[in-house]
Design goal:
By secondary structure, this protein is an alpha+beta fold. Among the domains are: 6-88, no CATH class; 251-326. The chain has helices at 6-21, 60-88, 96-107, 121-124, 128-131, 163-168, 227-230, 252-263, 270-290, 292-303, 307-321; strands at residues 27-33, 36-45, 48-56, 116-119, 144-149, 175-176, 188-190, 196-202, 212-214, 219-224, 235-239, 245-249. The strands form three sheets. Strands 4, 5, 6, 7, 8, 9 and 10 form a seven-stranded mixed beta sheet that branches. The chain has a three-stranded antiparallel beta sheet with strand order 1-2-3. Strand 11 and strand 12 (245-249) form a beta hairpin. Helix 8 packs across helix 11 (307-321). It is globular. The two termini are 22 Å apart.
Length: 326
């Protein structure tokens, strides 16, 4: 596998740090009501632009906030240059719609610490720099975004922001997919082109409601086995869209082993199972080259979780992809 040059890994790490500490920014303008002038900010988000009230123009703190807002726009321009550099060097960038969905989720605070973690192929797309090699592009294609959380209390930063409102900032055609149970809140959202956004949450107890209710988002979340282990101790990453979207993804070694496990649960969905194994193989080969100790330690941790649901399916998957772990 082709290694990512150290200079590019350094640029990526710098972009991750800057994206995760960046403040929203844009241009400012004044509106006058009577004799009083008010400052507003305007910035691009998702597929459109939003306006934000900053405060009275004669307020020193508001003017300082407006200055920071404009400065943040300039900082975003500089991050865009880093994004462009990394993309031109061959690192994976999401498709435009995927990038816009991630952007609105991050802006709403759903990808911050103690909130949500991206899983599935969207997460895999952002792992090449994390493992230090260019991952195969054949395993990158996706028609959905999977957002996992361990928190029933998952909520947006802005009071009253529902999941549907947030997604409509990326594409106004996003609608909830009705659940089989008419009383259940939707855990899946689809736009007119068929693109899906799914909300997922770990199984806690056998008799837990499924889907779980995320009251603050007016949405549900489908409960899945082994998800809690997958999203434990996620890592910071960045999606190469716009000025760089701050995201959190599973540890790549956990992701690879989790893909091995779920590949055996796909039933007749052979295409998805093959994609699971292709991603697992690519990550295992990369980690065995760049960080073999971590891969082995993660496998040992998974194996201690049990034989039937953990060690056995991993062993079967390893045999299918021709990869050996001790």
């Amino acid at each position: 596998m082709k290694k990512i040059p150290l200079v590019l890994q350094t640029v990526y790490a710098d972009l991750v740090q800057k994206a995760h500490t960046a403040e929203p920014g844009g241009s400012t303008y004044v509106r006058k009501q009577g004799a009083v002038e008010y400052l507003y900010g305007k910035r691009t988000l998702g597929s459109g632009q939003i306006s934000e009230f900053l405060g009275r123009a004669d307020d020193r703190d508001v003017r300082a906030r407006a200055d920071r807002y404009v400065a943040a726009q300039e900082a975003a321009r500089e991050r865009r240059k880093l994004v462009s550099l990394l993309k031109s060097a061959g690192l994976t960038a999401p498709l435009s719609l995927v990038g816009m969905v991630l952007e609105v989720l991050a802006d709403a605070g759903l990808l911050e610490e103690e909130q949500g973690v991206l899983v599935g192929t969207t997460a895999y797309q952002s792992m090449d720099a994390l493992v230090g090699v260019f991952l195969p592009s054949t395993a990158m294609m996706t028609g959905d975004v999977d957002l996992a959380t361990a928190q029933i209390a998952l909520r947006a930063k802005t009071e009253g922001d529902t999941m549907q409102k947030i997604l409509k900032r990326a594409d106004k055609s996003f609608r909830p997919v009705p659940a089989l149970d008419a009383k259940a809140w939707p855990w899946r959202f689809r736009n007119d082109s068929g693109f899906l956004v799914d909300l997922l949450i770990p199984v806690k107890k056998r008799n837990d409601d499924n889907p779980a209710r995320l009251e603050k988002l007016e949405a549900g979340a489908m409960r899945l086995q082994q998800l809690e282990w997958l999203i434990e101790n996620p890592v910071q990453a960045v999606a190469l869209h716009g000025a760089g979207v701050p995201i959190r993804v599973p540890d790549p070694a956990r992701y690879a082993l989790h893909k091995m496990i779920i590949s055996g649960k796909r039933g007749m969905e052979r295409a998805k199972a093959n994609k699971d194994l292709e991603q697992a193989k690519a990550l295992c080969e990369a980690l065995s080259q760049e960080n073999p100790g971590h891969l082995q330690a993660t496998f040992d941790d998974a194996r201690l979780k049990g034989k039937k649901g953990w060690a056995d399916p991993i062993a079967i998957a390893c045999k299918k992809i021709g990869f050996e772990l001790e």
